[in-house]
Amino acid sequence: MTEDDGVDDEHDGDLLTIGAFAARARLSAKALRLYDRMGLLVPDHVDEVTGYRYYRPGQIERARLVALLRRLDMPLARVAEVVRADGPEGAGLLDAYWSGVEARLAGQRTLADYLRGRLSGRSSGMDGKFVVETVDVSGRVVISETRHTLADELPAWIGASLERLEEAARGCGGVTAAPFVVYHSEVSEESDGPAETCVPVADEAAARAWCEERGRAWQTRVRVEPAQRLAYTRITKAQVAYPQILAAFAAVEEWIAAQGLTVAGPCREVYFADWEAAGPGDPVCDIAFPVS
C-alpha cells in the first residue's frame, strides 16, 4: 500500500490521508508533496514509521486557494507570499502580480503584431504601430557607467545605475537632459553587450573631479556626446520589456533604410518620464539611432 492509496480514508477521526485530501482539494498528491517541501501547505501530522502525510479538513480552503493562484501561472514563491499574508495584504500582493502580468501581455501583443506583419510580408514597423521621427540634439557632457550584462539582468542594472548617476549629477551642476542607455553591442540572453548608462550634466570639470574621486568602483567616466541627428520612435512602459522592445528597434532600423539614411552610431534608449509613476500604457522611452 502506498501513501496515495485509500483515497476516501480518514485517519484518527478528523485527519485525512494525502489521497483523500488531494481529492477534496482538487490537487495531486505530487503537488501536495511539493507544497510540503516548500512549507506552503504542511501536513498536520506525518507518521514517524511510514512517513505518510495526514491533513486536517480545515486545510482544504488554503489548498484550493493555492490551486487557484497557480491557475494564474503565479510562481510558487509568490503564491507562498499571498497565502501567508492577511486578507487585504494578500489581495494587494495579487494586484501587484496581476499588474505585472498585464504589462507583460501588453508588450507581447506589440511584439506579436510586429512579427505577424513581418511573417506575412506586410510592413512590420511602418503600419502605424511605431511612428518614427528625427530630432537634432546638441552636444553634451555625460557621466556614464559601462557594464557587460545579459538581458535578464539589464533592467535592474539600468535602474540602479541611473539612480547612482543622477545622485552624482546633483554635485555636477545638475541633470541637463533625459538619461539614456547606449548599446555598444547586442544585449540578449546570449550576448552581454556592453551597455552604457548616461546622464547629461552641466559642469564637466565637477563631473571629472567626481569620477576621479569616487567613480572608479562603478567604472564611471565622463565623456562628450557629439551633436547628432537621431531617428527615434516613442514607446510605452509595457513595450520596454524584453523581447517585445526588439520590435521597436527593428521598426526604426527599417525606417532608416527606407529613407536612404545611414546608422551613424550605437542605438540607445532615452528615458524621459518618471518610471515609477508611469502606467503600462504611458510613453516613457524613445528608441533611437544616430543617423546621417
Structure description:
By secondary structure, the chain is of the alpha+beta class. The protein has helices at residues 18-25, 29-37, 60-70, 76-84, 87-120, 154-169, 204-214, 245-258; strands at 10-11, 15-17, 45-46, 53-55, 132-137, 140-147, 180-183, 195-201, 220-225, 228-236, 268-271, 283-291. It is built from 8 helices and 12 strands. Strand 1 (10-11) and strand 2 form a beta hairpin. It is elongated and about 75 Å long. It folds into 2 domains: 10-84, Multidrug-efflux Transporter Regulator, Chain: A, Domain 2; 132-291, Alpha-Beta Barrel (Multidrug-efflux Transporter 1 Regulator Bmrr, Chain A). Strands 5-10-12-11-7-8-6-9 form an 8-stranded antiparallel β-sheet. The chain has a 4-stranded antiparallel β-sheet with strand order 1-2-4-3.
Mean pLDDT: 87
Count the domains.
2
The SSE order reads: EEHHEEHHHEEHEEHEEHEE
The CATH class label of the largest domain is Alpha Beta
How much is the radius of gyration in Å? 27 Å
**CATH fold annotation of the largest domain:** Multidrug-efflux Transporter 1 Regulator Bmrr, Chain A
Number of helices: 8
Cα-to-Cα separation, first versus last residue: 77 Å
Question: What coarse outline follows from CA principal-axis ratios?
Answer: elongated
Strands of the widest sheet, in order across it, are 5-10-12-11-7-8-6-9
Low-confidence segments, ≥5 residues, pLDDT <50? none
Q: Tell me which CATH architecture of the largest domain applies here.
A: Alpha-Beta Barrel
Query: In the CATH hierarchy, what is the superfamily of the largest domain?
Result: Regulatory factor, effector binding domain
In what range is the share of β-strand residues? 15-25%
